[in-house]
């Protein structure tokens, strides 16, 4: 998975654009080529993205909170203790560790101080990059990327045209599914 530039770098780029700097100069000031600056500008459609001015909410973990989680993991704290120190729910910390500790399940270390398992692989910087990458918009539609699912929907819904509106498409698919269930035909679900 290729990670784009960090959000902080892009924020600096857009703030210099807002101050009136050309895209080439704004990119060069951050150590990037003019081609990269032009690409960033085109990707945003020439409009300053909302995250440049908006502050991050409490919904997502911030980088400093991820560093606190890392410190708690290194100390061998329990998930509940780490969550209490952050003012977050234990499920939030558990989810963060589960998503970003590849092939490991977090268990706190024993009280005697020796390690119960091998060293943990949680890294806050990688977790932050992954979270930013997964939060990017727009995302491609599942029917556009998954050929099997698209064929299944087309087969189930019969003759759909591209001119059908979303409600028309949904109604046709629901009626096709009802008809199939009445006839006892089993349609596999895609997930």
Helix percentage range: 55-70%
> How many distinct helices?
11
The tally of domains stands at 3
Largest sheet: none
Characterization of the model:
With 191 residues, the protein is mainly alpha-helical. It folds into three domains: 7-53; 63-134, no CATH class; 142-182, no CATH class. The protein has eleven helices and no strands. The chain is flat, with a radius of gyration of 24 Å. The two termini are 22 Å apart.
In short:
By secondary structure, this protein is mostly helical. The protein contains eleven helices and no strands. 57% of the residues lie in helices and 0% in strands.
List keywords for this structure.
single chain; 191 residues; mainly alpha; 3 domains; 11 helices; 57% helix; 0% strand
Give me the secondary-structure topology.
Blueprint: H1 7-18, H2 23-29, H3 34-43, H4 50-53, H5 63-75, H6 79-86, H7 90-100, H8 124-134, H9 142-145, H10 147-157, H11 166-182
